[in-house]
Amino acid sequence: MTIAFRKVWRDLWNHKGRTLLVVLSIAVGVLALGMTVTSDTILKQQMAASRAARHKPHASIALAIPIGDDFIEAIAALPDVAEAEGRTTANIRWKPTLESEWQDAIIVVSPSYEDQVFDLIELKRGHWPGNNEVAVEYNHIEYYRIRFGEALYLQVNERPLPLRVVATVRDPLQMPPDYNPLDRVALYVNRDTAERLIGTRGFTQLRFTIREYSEAGVQEAVKEVQDRLERLGAVSAFSTFSADIFDPSGDQNQTVIDGLGLVLIVMAFFSLALSVTLVINTINAIVAQQVTQIGIMKTVGGLYWQIVSLYLAGVTVYGGLSLLLAVPLGAIAGYRLALFWLVSLNAPVAPFEIQPAAFTYQLAVGMIAPLAAALWPVLRGVSISVREAIASYGLGRGHYGAGRLDQWMGRVQGLPRMAALSLRNTFRRAGRAALTEITLLCAGAIFMMVMATGNSFNRTIDNVWASWGFDVIFIFQDFQRVAEMEALLRAQPGVNQVELWTWVQAQAHKPGLTDPANAHDIELRGIPYGTEMFKAELIEGRRLDPNDDHAMALNQKLAGDMGVGVGDMVVVDYGGGKEKTWTIVGLVSDVGVGGIQDTAFMWREVLAEDINLSGRASVAQIGATEDTRAAQDALKFTLQQYFASHNIRTTLTTGQLENKELASAMWDIIGGLLQLMTIMVAAVGSIGLSGTLSINVMERRREIGVMRAVGASSADVAFIFMGEGLLLGMISWALAVPLSMIGAQYFVTALGRALNFPFAYQYSFDGMWVWLAIIIVLSVVASWLPARRATQISVRESLAYE
Questions:
Q1: DSSP state of 100
Q2: Contacts of 691 (CB under 8 A, 6+ apart)
Q3: pLDDT category, 394, cuts 50, 70, 90?
């Protein structure tokens, strides 16, 4: 073993506590980086694989009247259409046993499970369902307590029809129950069984792709298909025409994950940057402590770069030890995080493996970052001359007390002796204290910014749900007569308020810009005169006036996307060659059911006249007599039964509190991830504070011995160091509060853009006080061990020369 190696080993082993703190500090930052890169890599791989395996259609058209195989074949034969397929989805009632209550379900019917074309359903267990058999979405079977191999019961003509569960499947279009606002099990049957259940073998959905994807090309194909459907009678005069267009290369879920992943990676790098401050403090302390050793090494012929390499070798060991912790833990944490997201999105899960990209990043950063941080302190420390090194006695260079800060603290009067000593000692090493403060300040600011984000989300959710105005909403498959439906609903128990709205999907563009590339999807919302349920927040302009004709209040996000504002004109294309020009009189903040932000509000009667459906509406918005989840669920169930018994078909039924709870659950996931990264940053800050105080203890061994020699008790010595830790923590809190107030608004805005969600900013003063409590606890805990170590130093040991 060489002398150089023995010195490096001695420095590391004789100061095990210091070594452990530095290694943990670096490991936290490298672990955070590895976790985020691993999860991001897995998610991108699996979401891309899911998109490829799913084979998304370019367009999906919902039909009011089922169509047969001949029409599907006719669509597939169109020159621009590459592939076409039908599928059926229908609402139905079910229960797991004869003694159970009826519940909601969705029936899915594929023309052939063995030869699917779009949105491929994957068989997980068992075999494809035959006659009188059913498959269940694999995320649903345990949640709804369905027994594989046994019968469940579906409601047909008010009677239970048993079907045997023979398979579980993964359907990319279904969400896990915990994140499904519709709260209904997905069941899969063949066409023969579907005919017994819903009375038809036909298809209620038409999906197709064109030969070369472009949004304009798909829109043209949709118009051609719509014309054929109208001639066939598959679109009635009183039914809604709904066509969704999908970009095969796009994925809304992936966009959200990418945005959140970017935020987490930035926070991980930030955590790593803070962790290297402890490396800087530690190397500064080691070099300062070993000035005499540096002088002796130079005296006996040690060269400048030889001495530098000794200290950098120690830093290399710090980095290597941190990688032993960070690489496996980061890989496991990243995989678990990706697994959570994949399960939440019902995407295929990959087996665990170390991601090469994450390992490479961790290896590079874990080794290079500490060396880069330590390089300047080492170079500066080793450059000391032999005379200065030998003349140093480890008590500083006599500069303390000369600075303005030192002089100001010296004038502070009236403090207890030990408190005054803590105050003055805190900033004896101003550079070290500053680095520690930066770490704690950033940790506090990030924590309070995350708390402000959560507060902003809650405020946004409250605003959104208050703007909806309804408790329960029903979207009808066919347009209903307004007067008849209003009277029918008002007569139902538990109903306090009823409004019939008209919802229509259309295209909008600026006047003169007729190119399909300039068209934007728009959700038209026809509201009744005198409405009490339209409560969207007005951002600019005015609200609708009863004397308005073709006037609209446009969603501010859609207005921004289109480049229009108050007073501008917008051409609305209803399809089938019908167009009307509308004037924007106001901009509103609105997040609709499902998070859509492409809405426009106008008078129902004016819209209905444009689409030749005067006196009819497609949506019932209902206010319940009780504002509770149980009351809303009961009202929804009662009305569903009523509609089913009167053959009134609905395409969507949901409650306000049901959606609010789901949105809150989704935020809990996102907020939890942000808090996890905040905890890591706080851990780095706490380790940094403990490391700083530990270094202070080692540097002041002789001072401690002097104090003990003149009568200072162990409690007095401990008070000094714990006081320093608490003072550093309190100063960081005082500085972090204004910094978080400034940064929180930018952070909330950036996260809102990443998640495509319009946060309404509101600072969290609760977060400010919560962090104060946390920083006090962290400061006390972080300073306890160094303070305890200081009390264990004897007078003889502290005054002895090395």
A1: S
A2: 18, 21, 22, 25, 278, 281, 282
A3: very low
